[in-house]
Design brief:
homotetramer, alpha+beta, elongated
Chain lengths: 139, 139, 139, 139
Amino acid sequence: MGKTIRFGVSLNSDLLDQFDALCEEKSYPNRSEAIRDLIRGVLVEREQQLGGKDLAAVLTLVYDHHFSDLTQRLMEAQHDSHDVILTTMHVHLDHHNCLEVLILKGAGDTIKRLADKLIATKGVKHGKLTLTTTGQGIA
Amino acid sequence: MGKTIRFGVSLNSDLLDQFDALCEEKSYPNRSEAIRDLIRGVLVEREQQLGGKDLAAVLTLVYDHHFSDLTQRLMEAQHDSHDVILTTMHVHLDHHNCLEVLILKGAGDTIKRLADKLIATKGVKHGKLTLTTTGQGIA
Amino acid sequence: MGKTIRFGVSLNSDLLDQFDALCEEKSYPNRSEAIRDLIRGVLVEREQQLGGKDLAAVLTLVYDHHFSDLTQRLMEAQHDSHDVILTTMHVHLDHHNCLEVLILKGAGDTIKRLADKLIATKGVKHGKLTLTTTGQGIA
Amino acid sequence: MGKTIRFGVSLNSDLLDQFDALCEEKSYPNRSEAIRDLIRGVLVEREQQLGGKDLAAVLTLVYDHHFSDLTQRLMEAQHDSHDVILTTMHVHLDHHNCLEVLILKGAGDTIKRLADKLIATKGVKHGKLTLTTTGQGIA
């Protein structure tokens, strides 16, 4: 892994004042960390567009477990794709509603297909796939 | 909770053919479930814009646990907000990289502030807040 | 173009009540039009992901025309891509700020590359590419 | 307007190499301009979330002008809101399809309501509201 280096950015002072205010609002310890986050953000976005590298992802599902044999169907669909599902976690939101989180790792296409399938399952109220990075190559 | 009712939608047959193809591609069991998902999607989005109701949310963090006292700092920041963090799950992606998922429930503003703070922590490579619904009122 | 047909959707009445309220809030003349819009929305999104078909797009740029030779540089970059730029429109927002809109039509990749280039031009304060559809094949 | 100042950012050299590659791919003249764009991007986003300031915005509509009295209805709805519509531009995409762009300026809520209404009009195939900035206060 590379060493830390320092470079200069020139900027209008009004713009910098506004950025500093936003950094404070978002609890950044300093300006550099905020800029590193912006940079890592566009790199991760690019990584996701390009494909080719494994992605990490989180699938969030909200459903009513009383719904017919939904729990069973979700379980079976997940086992069919056990190789890209690292782990899952389940929260009982109330008497009816469950929130389930799946941590996924694999090719972007495979992950998206699995997410589509689980979200499409009858009884799932809301589903969202959040793509992130495996962190490899992102310093 | 209301009973199931049925209503008619009129549509150009070309549009319907394309929609049916997309439903099949996304593994929907039938057209009604796909339309229910579209409807629930805009309702959940609206719920998030309006505020006022508790939201459920998932925060995804990727970080290098070798980074100075990062684990400790994340732990402390989380305990300061333990009332909106239902649970967390941690995956060791490789020797360096961790993926941590926090399930949150509470007022939208509180959740966003906490997410901002954790994402801004030095050493966190990537963070994303995914807003979803508690499922209450979404049939 | 296909003829209009009618099909039934079954739905929980609570969900339908909420959807009707949202349709009214968004000024939809009726439920069918709102559902057609949801369906066209996902089809257009899919069209953009798949590539292969020409897209229509709108590029929005905000810049300060006092900035060195910015107007000249934007003009030249646009002429280099005149084949995908159908037309442009310019508004003088105030003494300094201009809003320029370019209507683009062509392959997704070409459009994105041109947008990247214009947004990256020094002096452009904000730029956003909005992908839409040529309307062909969307009934 | 403030003067140009220069500040240092410290960064891992691997991260910087990747960022430089992305800057080149996106045609940035130099690293500073790319970072200024990232900073302006989050400031404009924040401006839109906060409300209170006038926004500039572009509404993109695609529709079939053969559709009943659509042109007339769009025209009337626009005149009802002429105070926030600075100008409009129209492109004949093909024999059927039109692309119309409206440049809007005003309070965020007013703009969104007008966009909702025009997008909801029967016969509009696709509509998208793109929020940007009036450029005031963004250096």
